Amino acid sequence: MRQLPADFFRTPYAFYRQLRAEGSVHQIRLRTGVRAWLVVDYDAAKEVLRHPDVRKDPHSATGAQARQAAAGNSGVTAANQRLSHHLLNADPPQHSRLRKLVTPAFAPARMEALAPRVTAIADELLDRIDQAAGPVDLLEEYAFPLPITVICELLGVPVEDRAQFRDWSVAVVDTPMSTPAGMRSATDAIVDYFDRSVAARRKHGLGDDLISHLLTASDDGDRLSHDELISMAFLILIAGHETTVNLIGNTVLTLLADPPRYRALHQNPEAVTPLVEEMLRYDGPVNVATLRYTAAPITLGGTEIPTGELVLVALASANRDERHFADPAAFDPDRSSNHIAFGHGIHYCLGAGLARMEARIALTRLVRRFPELRLAVDEGDLRWRESILLRGLLDLPVHPAGAPVDSTGAPARR
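The chain above was modelled as a monomer; its predicted structure follows.
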C-alpha cells in the first residue's frame, strides 16, 4: 500500500507520474491512517466521476471503509449533520432534485452580470496594495478577499460580518491550522448564523441575494427544506471562494516564474481566457475530488475495487495524463484542453463559471496595475496548503514593483 511522499503537498506531480506509469488506480494510506483507492489517469477518472455504482453518500454504500468515512465526516455535531444536506453529499434522485432547484440561482447571465462589481472589488484591493511600503502577501491582500467578498455579497452577508465568515471558512477547510474543536465551533456558528439569516428574511422580506433566491426556489411545488437551504448556503460559502483563491494564487505564481509571459498578458489581456483554462489543467485549484464510495464492485484498468471502499479521484494527476495531453508538464495556453479541473458528470462544479470570471478579472486587473510584479521570496521557500483536496499556497509574498496604472490606464498617484 502506497504512502504519500514527504513533499507531496509541495510537488505532487512526480509522484502522480510514477503512479500513472504503474496503473490507473492504487491503494494508498493517507496521513490520517485512512485507506483509500486513488485514481490517477484521465480515462479512469472520468469513468469514476460518472459511474452509477460510485456514490457520494457513504450511507448508500456498505462496507467497513464507507462506515469509517461516514463516522469521520458526519455526526461530529448536530450542526455537522445539518450541513450535510447539499449537492456534494447527494446521489440521484436526491441530487437531481437539489440541482434542479438551485441551478437557476447560478444562471450564466446572472454570474456574468457580477463582472462590473468583481472588477470594482479587485480595483479597491489593488488600491490598498499600491499604498503598501514594502512586500505584500498577495493571497492575504488580494486572492482571498476578492472571492470571499463576492460570495458574501451574493449571500447577502453584511460587511461587518465578512471577517467572521473568513475565519469560519479557514477553520472548516482541511489545513494545518484546522483543529477538530475549531471545526466543530465553526460549523456550529455557521448553522446558527444562517438560521438567523433565513429567519430574518422570512420575517422582514426577501432581497436579491442567493439565500432569498434559494428560499423561493420551486419546482412543481417542491422547495428546499430548511436544512437543505442551510447546507446549500454553507456549500456556496466554502466552495464558492476556496477554489478561486487557489486558482488566482497558482496562476500568479506560474506567471511570475516566467516574467515574459506575465508581461505578455499585460500587453494582451484578451489572452487571459485560454491562459486560465490551461492553468486549470496545469496546476488547478483542486488536487483530489471530494470523497466517493463504491456501492458495488467496480473494475478500473484491470483492478477491482470492492464494495464499500473510499475512492479518491486525483484531478491534478488526470489533467497531466501523458496519454491524453501532449507534453503535460508544460504550461501551454495555446493547447486545446478538455481538462476535468471542475469535475465531470452530474457533480460538475455549479460555480465553475463564477470562478473562471473572477480569475480572469483578478489577473487582468493585477497585471494592468502592476506590470512589473515579482516574487519577494525564492519560489522554493513558498509554503503549500497541506490538504489532500485542495491545491494552493499558504502565502505569496510579492513586490508590487514598477510604475502602476489606475483603473483608467493612467499612471497612478502614490
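DSSP finds 17 helices and eleven strands in the chain.
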